[in-house]
Amino acid sequence: MTTAALSLEHLLKPSSLKEGKIPVLFMFHGYGSNEEDLFSFASDLPPEFCIISVRAPLTLPTFGYAWYTINFDAAFGKWSDEDEARWAREKIVHFIEEACTAYYLDKNNVTLLGFSQGTILSYAVALSYPEKIRNVIALSGYINESILVEDYAQKDHSKVQIYASHGSVDQVIPVEWAQNAPALLEALKIPFTYEEFPVGHGVSPQNFVAFKKWLKNRI
What is the pTM of this model? Predict the structure, then answer.
């Protein structure tokens, strides 16, 4: 399907539904990847969803794209540009709204699926603007409270549901960072599933089956 000229480059797989309210699933890839990466899942996910896989806005000097800069500094170690991350959060919110309008999708049935840096931004969008998001599939990422809106904890998160998973031997994002999510989600009264799989920084076949089943129950 030909995609509309929107604020972010993207790939789209139409819903099998021809009328009525159409649910949408947005995919957000990790650092250094592109919109084709997670889109490989699209054909195996519930066909009722319109699936939109989004390219991050920053072009890396070596290859791929990023939602925000990660600096690798010999003196200070690895650190993320959180101002840029907050900018990316708002850019995603804007894109979701314009894509739902352009493709006639149900703004009240929006699912985010992220991997790594894409998960960090998916958490940021959903926890900052819970009225806009219904479901989140958070793969191999963590919650960075520094890039959430200041009053996020005062908002009503009761309509959001989250599936989170992580590799128990992840060498890129320590599993301990992901393990902090359940306590925060409980405090916000967000229903969630959290699972770990014996893999590194990636999605195992068992992980895919698990989140697909979770998603299918939330069409």
Answer: 0.96
